[in-house]
Amino acid sequence: MILIDVDQALSKIACNRLQKELAEWQVNPPVGFKHKVTDNLQRWVIEVNGAPGTLYADEKFQLQCLKPVSSLIRLSNLGLLQS
């Protein structure tokens, strides 16, 4: 698991951008995905439904998406959380 250094704060621009993305996600989430609320704007926990017609059809998975402090242009770190 990757931990975010709490001493590194998001810039105002980055914070506003993440808040906007989160608001858009909550209004119009991608099909099969659900954002679970956390107390950290940089750490998103996303619940994903298993694809229909597959071995995973009735399963739910949790992904952790960590947004980098240094640059929102860089890719987020994704990981599967254990249930």
| Largest sheet properties | 4 strands, antiparallel
Count of individual beta strands: 4
Overall, the morphology is elongated
Radius of gyration: 14 Å
Q: What's the CATH superfamily of the domain at 31-81, by name?
A: Ubiquitin Conjugating Enzyme
Q: How far apart are the termini?
A: 14 Å
In the CATH hierarchy, what is the class of the domain at 31-81?
Alpha Beta
Unreliably modeled segments: 1-7
| CATH architectural grouping of the domain at 31-81 | Roll
Write the element-wise H/E pattern from the N-terminal end onward.
HEEEE
What would the CATH topology of the domain at 31-81 be? Ubiquitin Conjugating Enzyme
Spatial arrangement of strands, main beta sheet: 1-2-3-4
Protein name: UBC core domain-containing protein
Organism: Escallonia herrerae
InterPro entries: UBC, UBQ-conjugating_enzyme/RWD
Domain UBC core: 13-83
Quick description:
The chain is α+β, with helices and mostly antiparallel strands. The protein has one helix and four strands; from the N terminus they run H-E-E-E-E.
Tell me what you see in this structure:
The chain has 83 residues and is α+β, with helices and mostly antiparallel strands. The chain has one helix spanning 12-27, and strands at residues 33-36, 43-49, 60-66, 77-81. A four-stranded antiparallel β-sheet has the order 1-2-3-4, with no helix packed on it. Strand 1 (33-36) and strand 2 form a beta hairpin. The protein is elongated, with a radius of gyration of 14 Å. It starts with 11 loop residues before the first helix and ends with a strand.
